[in-house]
């Protein structure tokens, strides 16, 4: 035993495998009914009226779930509502006009606060502007913007007039923008001149213009002037200034369009196993009810809170838990434009102190960076306003969990490790913070009403202690309804039908591996398909491979994820050059540039390994598993089925050399 209390505490934490929710949290938790899981199971699917009741409906629904055309499940059928009216008008009408809806901070420190009243006014003005530009109900509007308030404003303006939005992450490349706009046949785009990253003004307009060159047909474009004199830009034909439009429509009153519960609220493109991104379709009723319910039950959101999800709205986490869930509940949601280490590594903690943030939700990759930077940064700030912490996007290792618990939460905040996906719309597997014991590294039990099970290769449930495939055996309100214009792929990739004489059931496969713990908790192990997870960002290996093969001089490429201390996984590329090409530094740079141009800097390869051949089986299939082992420095698996086993040692030697 050490005499030093800090060392002793550290040692105790290291050994501790489970944590109870702190009493101070339990007393005030939104969900405290320990029987909620049994209740939801007994009352399924009617249990989900509890989620629908968080919303204001224009027309109440006739049926909670219509499963007559499975797996095309429909939720709250016959109901109608508007998402922007649920996020704005009803709060303004209920006396929250002057409550802050969005608190925004730019990277250079400027701030903007929009009350619910302000937000409604600007949303109406922009909705009227969009209509003037010709946007009609069901037209897809693409939003290519960084973390500035005009992004959620544009989302809500689209929702108000029944035009689905398709947000493209601002860090994606021009090519990625064009692919997504063409796929959605989107004729409207909202973008901005630029934004700040580590103090530099980035030119986003130029990237947008390059993207638009690859889009078929004319696109009406709205440009937000974020940078003013810092970066001048010119508006060409079909381009309009956001500020001028909003000014011209100030005071406009735009009646929210009543949408059927099953009408599309938005499209979100995500990566899959082929090179073609998938347009995940989410609906108005089920999605909004589900994000509101999970925000309340899991993130314990209360209207008087200042709540901060430090994700980017360009990904599903930002859609569900910066914009729709929190605003549907009428809370104050924070947005920060920049990076966590600018100007110093205490930026996030400074923001928490200054805004008295109650709940903080981030990704394990960020927590691993904070750990690396050291405790001195959070220690500079008073983080005592925090009541709850959350993580999302990738498995969290117990060490990072405990660091977060101790150094950010001061052992007073429960942590929710929330497993879900773009496709699920909202959280699926996580502890409920006021009820459940927490086990670092394990996401927890499925949420009430969610039938998640781990199954083996024969699709039978595994025994406790065993690993298998994660499945969801019953539908849920936030589920994707289809892949835009690709319903066949929706059914093929996600669903399997079981038709024994008694049941005709469809099971959802998220393509994740998981372990079932003795107590029914689920430890998510990671993807079982060719999708990798870099810093919580989902990337398809095929997309990266096709970008590399597009570089002249490259004959073939294989991309895998290798383990990485901070990013979780990193992109490893194995490249075969055409005859006569040399594996020079220049060539390496061209490969990296090729990936950045096709996707964006997030997909930047960690390593480019030139090799004369790839390890292949006798039937000619690339043995990715071996390439992953090499990238992760792991012991190599069986190489006996290879046609060219000698190549593995050669590649391995090269990686070690690098
Ligand atoms: O592999 C799982 C991982 O992220 C994938 C979904 O990525 P995306 O659609 O981009 O959505 C990320 C944000 C919801 C999943 O298939 N994942 C997500 N959350 C967790 C996770 N893996 C382990 N633990 C989690 N909490």
TrEMBL record:
<dbReference type="GO" id="GO:0003987">
    <property type="term" value="F:acetate-CoA ligase activity"/>
</dbReference>
<comment type="similarity">
    <text>Belongs to the ATP-dependent AMP-binding enzyme family.</text>
</comment>
<keyword id="KW-0067">ATP-binding</keyword>
<dbReference type="GO" id="GO:0016208">
    <property type="term" value="F:AMP binding"/>
</dbReference>
<dbReference type="InterPro" id="IPR020845">
    <property type="entry name" value="AMP-binding_CS"/>
</dbReference>
<dbReference type="GO" id="GO:0043955">
    <property type="term" value="F:3-hydroxypropionyl-CoA synthetase activity"/>
</dbReference>
<protein>
    <recommendedName>
        <fullName>Acetate--CoA ligase</fullName>
        <ecNumber>6.2.1.1</ecNumber>
    </recommendedName>
</protein>
<dbReference type="InterPro" id="IPR011904">
    <property type="entry name" value="Ac_CoA_lig"/>
</dbReference>
<dbReference type="InterPro" id="IPR025110">
    <property type="entry name" value="AMP-bd_C"/>
</dbReference>
<dbReference type="InterPro" id="IPR042099">
    <property type="entry name" value="ANL_N_sf"/>
</dbReference>
<feature type="domain" description="AMP-binding enzyme C-terminal">
    <location>
        <begin position="543"/>
        <end position="621"/>
    </location>
</feature>
<dbReference type="Pfam" id="PF16177">
    <property type="entry name" value="ACAS_N"/>
</dbReference>
<dbReference type="GO" id="GO:0005524">
    <property type="term" value="F:ATP binding"/>
</dbReference>
<dbReference type="InterPro" id="IPR045851">
    <property type="entry name" value="AMP-bd_C_sf"/>
</dbReference>
<dbReference type="Pfam" id="PF00501">
    <property type="entry name" value="AMP-binding"/>
</dbReference>
<feature type="region of interest" description="Disordered">
    <location>
        <begin position="1"/>
        <end position="21"/>
    </location>
</feature>
<dbReference type="GO" id="GO:0019427">
    <property type="term" value="P:acetyl-CoA biosynthetic process from acetate"/>
</dbReference>
<dbReference type="InterPro" id="IPR032387">
    <property type="entry name" value="ACAS_N"/>
</dbReference>
<keyword id="KW-0547">Nucleotide-binding</keyword>
<dbReference type="GO" id="GO:0043427">
    <property type="term" value="P:carbon fixation by 3-hydroxypropionate cycle"/>
</dbReference>
<feature type="domain" description="AMP-dependent synthetase/ligase">
    <location>
        <begin position="91"/>
        <end position="476"/>
    </location>
</feature>
<keyword id="KW-0436">Ligase</keyword>
<feature type="domain" description="Acetyl-coenzyme A synthetase N-terminal">
    <location>
        <begin position="37"/>
        <end position="87"/>
    </location>
</feature>
<dbReference type="Pfam" id="PF13193">
    <property type="entry name" value="AMP-binding_C"/>
</dbReference>
<dbReference type="InterPro" id="IPR000873">
    <property type="entry name" value="AMP-dep_synth/lig_dom"/>
</dbReference>
């Amino acid at each position: 035993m050490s005499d030093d209390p800090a060392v002793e505490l550290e040692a105790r934490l290291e050994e501790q495998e489970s944590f109870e929710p702190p009493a101070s949290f339990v007393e005030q938790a939104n969900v405290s009914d320990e029987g909620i899981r049994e209740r939801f199971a007994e009352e399924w699917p009617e249990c989900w009226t509890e989620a629908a009741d968080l919303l204001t409906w224009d027309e109440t629904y006739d049926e909670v779930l219509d499963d007559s055309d499975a797996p095309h499940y429909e939720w709250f059928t016959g109901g109608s509502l508007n998402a922007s009216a649920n996020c704005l008008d009803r709060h303004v009408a209920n006396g929250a006009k002057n409550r802050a809806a969005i608190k925004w901070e730019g990277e250079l420190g400027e701030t903007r606060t929009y009350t619910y009243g302000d937000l409604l006014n600007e949303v109406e003005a922009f909705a009227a502007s969009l209509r003037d530009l010709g946007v009609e109900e069901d037209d897809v509007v693409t939003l290519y913007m960084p973390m500035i308030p005009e992004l959620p404003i544009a989302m809500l303006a689209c929702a108000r007039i029944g035009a689905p939005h398709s947000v493209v992450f601002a860090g994606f490349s021009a090519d990625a923008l064009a692919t997504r706009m063409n796929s959605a046949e989107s004729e409207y785009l909202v973008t901005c001149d630029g934004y700040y990253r580590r103090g530099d003004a980035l030119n986003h307009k130029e990237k947008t213009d390059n993207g638009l060159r690859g889009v078929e047909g004319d696109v009406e474009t709205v440009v937000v002037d974020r940078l003013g004199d810092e970066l001048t830009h010119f508006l060409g034909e079909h381009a309009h200034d956001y500020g001028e439009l909003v000014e011209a429509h100030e005071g406009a009153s735009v009646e929210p369009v009543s949408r059927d519960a099953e009408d599309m609220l938005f499209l979100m493109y995500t990566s899959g196993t082929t090179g073609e991104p998938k347009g995940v379709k989410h609906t108005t009723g089920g999605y909004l009810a589900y994000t509101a319910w999970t925000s309340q039950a899991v993130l314990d959101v209360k209207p008087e809170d200042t709540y901060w999800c430090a994700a980017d709205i360009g990904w599903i986490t930002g859609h569900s838990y910066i914009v729709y869930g929190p605003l549907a509940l009428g809370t104050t949601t924070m947005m920060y434009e920049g990076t966590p280490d600018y100007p110093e590594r205490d930026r996030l903690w400074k923001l928490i102190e200054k805004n008295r943030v109650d709940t903080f939700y981030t990704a394990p990759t960020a927590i691993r960076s904070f750990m690396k930077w050291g405790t001195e940064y959070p220690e500079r700030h008073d983080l005592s306003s925090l009541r709850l912490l959350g993580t999302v996007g990738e498995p969290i290792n117990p060490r990072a969990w405990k660091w977060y618990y101790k150094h950010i939460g001061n052992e007073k905040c429960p942590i929710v490790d929330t497993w879900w996906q773009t496709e699920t719309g909202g959280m699926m597997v996580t502890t409920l913070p006021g009820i459940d014991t927490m086990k670092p590294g394990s996401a927890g039990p499925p949420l009430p009403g969610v039938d998640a099970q781990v199954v083996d290769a024969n699709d039978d449930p595994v025994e406790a202690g065993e690993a298998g495939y994660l499945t969801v055996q019953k539908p849920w309100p936030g589920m994707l309804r289809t892949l835009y214009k690709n319903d066949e792929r929706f059914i093929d990739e996600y669903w399997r039908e079981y038709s024994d004489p008694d049941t005709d059931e469809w099971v959802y496969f998220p393509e994740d591996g998981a372990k079932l713990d003795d107590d029914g908790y689920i430890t998510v192990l990671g993807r079982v398909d060719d999708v990798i997870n870099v810093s919580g960002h989902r990337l398809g290996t095929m997309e990266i491979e096709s970008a590399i093969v597009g570089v002249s001089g490259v004959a073939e490429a294989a991309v895998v994820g290798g383990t990485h201390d901070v990013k979780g996984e990193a992109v490893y590329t194995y490249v075969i050059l055409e005859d006569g090409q040399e594996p020079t530094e220049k060539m390496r740079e061209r490969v990296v540039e090729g990936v950045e141009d096709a996707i964006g800097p997030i997909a930047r390869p960690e390593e480019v390994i030139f090799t004369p051949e790839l390890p292949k089986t006798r039937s000619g299939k690339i043995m990715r598993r071996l390439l992953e082992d090499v990238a992760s420095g792991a012991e190599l698996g069986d190489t006996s089925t290879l046609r060219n086993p000698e190549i593995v040692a050669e590649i391995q030697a090269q990686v070690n050399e690098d």
